[in-house]
Amino acid sequence: MDFVAQLTLFVLAIFLGFELITKVPPTLHTPLMSGSNAISGITLVGALLAAGHGGSTLISVLGFVAVVLATINVIGGFMVTNRMLAMFKRK
Amino acid sequence: MQIAQHWIDIAYLIAAALFILGIKGLSKPKTAVRGNLLAATGMGIAAVVTLLHHDIVSYEVIIAGLIVGAVIGAVLAIRVQMTSMPQLIALLNGFGGGASFALAAAEYFKGVDTTVAMAASGAAVLIGAVTLTGSFVAFAKLQELIDGQPKGFPGMKLVNLVLLVFSLGAIGYMTWTGQPNDTLFWAVVAAAALLGIMLVMPIGGADMPVVIALLNSYSGIAASAAGFVMGNSALIITGSLVGASGLILTQIMCKAMNRSLTNVLFGVMAEAGEAMDADEVYQGKIKSSSAEEVAMILETAQRVVIVPGFGLAMAQAQHAVRDLADTLEARGTVVEYAIHPVAGRMPGHMNVLLAEAEVSYDKLKDMDTINPTFEQTDVAIVIGANDVTNPLAREDKGSPIYGMPILNVDKARTVVVVKRSLSPGFAGLPNPLFAKDNTLMLFGDGKQAIIDTTNALKEG
Asked: Do B62 and A37 lie within an 8 Å CB cutoff?
């Protein structure tokens, strides 16, 4: 993918982000943060490619670290967000 | 099994769409749980198709990493207490930054062949490492492993500037010449790690919500930069969504303190506050009350507003507060909660605590909604909040907090302040609210004071 296409995605996604996030009520700001932590764990897909690349030891170690940290964010983030949101749901 | 690149890209697009629907779900508490599940589904799809990518030749490291990460993540999510949520968010921000850093470093050592990839991997390493160490300092401060007060030394800003300029210069040099230089690369890593520590050390206490929100934003931007390195659309889109999210929260927090981001990060609060003598403000005007007296006043109250602050989290008093509210409501009193945007240590901190105590979210009112109602309020109970109720912000033009939007609790017929002592809040200012004619101080541990009041109310 060329740079301009990447930049286009980046800029449009930021505008979309602003539109989406301003609609989140203050009451849900903490779950929003933990939830956004979880989805920023999307680095996992890059981390998987780096870790499974079969390159040098250094690359494998960095890939392993990236997989561990991103997985913590994904699993920890979604689980804790779910836990918080379940508290908001019950009345 | 291997699949073609375009199917993987389509799966990433589906994942990105599910993330967007997930965040959209967060616009209402009712749809939020489903939103979170949609986002998690998107993540699952993205991860599974990636495992089918033809670049992946060995699975040992991947499986080990997934197991270790999943166990740590699950344990953290299940065991964390709601009062410790700011610490967990700080940690997760740091891990997010760390993942982008490690990923970009791995890409760098695989060989970056384009100008964009070189510049982007430099950016991801820089922002990722700053986020990693900065978040750990924030975590240590919130967890009270280190002193939560601002720490610094003369010339700190200059050192930070040198570190930043050096890092940018080194990345720029490698990008410009197209020559990766491993020594320079590790020097950037070290400088960025140090910069993260030094940026967060001078920030403390009540400014924490801003830092947490900002680091949240950084973790997203770092992920986006990593996406530019790999040419991966999923990372670019998701990273910028998270970056925008953190940035908006940062703006909201700054606005709620009437301070600019620069002022929070680099400024010190104006020194004018020291001119005001606490003894002069409080001398002979403080009325210390008892749980029984407060209960008597509450007996005849028709409308009560509870104003929670960080002290509520410290005292773990959320369940006690809910009991008091239940007791009042059983007697026909209307009870609402006034939530200042920067109450607590992160955006939405008080809402989460009260939700844990099963307080219905529609009773939690934000500042603009609740402020006009204080004049019709019989009793405002301030528990563990200080600066956000300080009338100086409204009345004293010379005060360092002048102009900060506050909760107008002093307009209530009676104000009960539950507090350990007359010690000042983070701003270091005396609070004339405590000395007002209609204010009663209920000194003691927040939780115990509320429990005593509830018991007195039940007996009376």
From this structure: no
